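# nightly structure sweep
# worker-07 picked up a monomer target from the shared queue
# config: single-sequence mode, recycle default, output format = structure tokens
# input follows
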Amino acid sequence: MPAPTAPLLDAAGKKAKDVTLEASVFAAEIKPHLVHETVRAEMNEQRSATRGAKTRGFVSGGRSKPWRQKGTGRARAGTTRAPHWTGGGVAFPTGGRNFEVKVNRKARHAALRGALSSHASNGTFGVLDGSGFDAPSTKRATGLLASWGKEAPFVVVATDEEENVIKSFRNIESVVVCAPSELNVAAAVWARSLLVTEEALEAVQGRAS
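# output follows
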């Protein structure tokens, strides 16, 4: 089986040549169940899990006994912050929930390889020659994506040193720019098209190996 290739795009969005990709990463077996499991785990990791309610011990007020124990004809009460009082605490409050889903490292790597292989086989993976951006230019980046002719949304992967590329793409609608270390399965699955700079390609391949 021949090694997969991807077009190398210049700053104008024109194909300069084909770049040979690492077969172990971009021609791997796609396992939908691993991709689903990993995306679910990554989405859960972003949940803050801050939802909660206060018990009677955390609600303000209610320190003193509202009335004396006997002789009033009313039911005895020790605080106005009991659950059955208006403004009282919650009897069995929610809070502290853990949404973590454990996925082994090998499974995460296999899922990322599957997502990258899907882009490579569908022709929605491209390599960008970042040297063409000698200065930030959103207009040039927009023209590049239009010339490439792929469907949005896009994920553009660039190294931290490629500031001109990052600044050129980051303000475009339906485009997410990230570093190689930030590329995860959820982003690769969300993107209809994936564009990686030459400088970042090796790091992306190493992350999925």
